[in-house]
Design brief:
By secondary structure, the chain is α+β, with helices and mostly antiparallel strands. It has helices at 9-61, 145-155, 224-232, 239-246; strands at residues 73-79, 84-86, 96-98, 101-109, 112-121, 128-138, 161-176, 192-194, 202-207, 214-222, 252-260. Strands 8-9-1-4-5-6-7-10-11 form a nine-stranded antiparallel sheet. The longest helix has 53 residues, at 9-61. It starts with 8 loop residues before the first helix and ends in a 14-residue tail after the last strand.
Length: 274
């Protein structure tokens, strides 16, 4: 009677090793596929929300109108704190200066002035939620109090404001004249002022018949997963959160758009210093 054949111990060990290598390779490929899928889905969500916010803000900005009241603010933008540096990927790269500004403007609808404002809360933080303010007053009245209502809403956030977008690290406004030139304190000191600790950036205050001819805005939005991780840190000093944010510039998506305004009065730009 012949003896039965079987695998030797060495053959079994080799087979198990090969199967283990194959399984590890499959798991690594599956994990990378999942990570790529999650990253692409996150970017799609951020891009959709960012484009929707940019579209809405663009439509509102197109309708900015001068009030022709001497003391009423038609257009206002100002930063309450200096820029927050965020290191960009790459050796020797310069950090990006994230700026967060308060923004207010007037529009007119039928027999009402409408004041619209945007601000980021909490104040002074490197990252927060963008809020939107709206207020109305009869067109026969001076619309100057609308800016005061916006300032009051900021002082007691988020009273009188609606939540607009989370994860905002950058919100900056630039104004341009009818020739497309950037309005600065040098060429239009009546409309622009230098912002403290912010080289090259300006705050804006347009009154009477003056509004910008073009407005360019920038919104920087942090990806949702990075935002949740940022919120999970419980550091009263905020240093850990700031350092974490500085290392994740690649997860910030920047949206920039230049909007032409319809209701520009050319007389506001006849003189360099109106």
């Amino acid at each position: 009677q012949s003896g039965s054949s079987a695998f030797s111990l060495i053959e079994i060990l080799i087979a198990v090793t090969l199967m283990s290598v194959i399984m590890v390779g499959l798991m690594a490929m599956f994990s990378q596929t999942q990570a790529a899928f999650r990253a692409s889905m996150t970017q799609v969500d951020v891009l959709e929300s960012g484009r929707a916010a940019a579209d809405l803000l663009s439509r509102e900005l197109e309708q900015v109108a001068p009030s022709y009241y001497g003391d009423a603010i038609n257009f206002y933008a100002n930063a309450k704190a200096g820029p927050v540096p965020q290191q960009l990927p790459g050796i020797g790269s310069y950090p990006r200066a994230n700026v967060i500004e308060d923004f207010f403007f007037l529009t007119r609808e039928n027999q009402n002035w409408i004041g619209m404002g945007y601000c980021v809360e909490p104040r002074g933080a490197p990252l927060g939620t963008l809020y939107r303010f709206t207020g109305t007053i009869n067109v026969n009245q001076d619309p100057a109090p609308l800016l005061g209502s916006f300032a009051k809403a900021i002082s007691t956030p988020p009273a009188g404001m609606s939540r607009f977008m989370d994860g905002v690290v950058h919100f900056k406004i630039r104004a341009f004249d009818a020739n497309g030139a950037w309005i600065t304190p040098v060429n239009f000191p009546a409309y622009a002022s230098s912002l403290p600790n912010m080289t090259g950036e300006s705050g804006y205050r347009f009154t009477s018949n003056a509004v910008p001819a073009f407005v360019e805005f920038e919104i920087g939005i942090l990806e949702d997963r990075t935002l949740e991780r940022y919120k999970s840190f419980t550091d009263p000093t905020g240093i850990i959160q700031s350092n974490y944010l500085a290392r994740h510039a690649g997860q910030v998506h920047l949206f920039r758009r230049r909007v032409p305004l319809r209701n520009v009065d050319p007389l506001a730009y006849l003189l360099p210093n109106p």
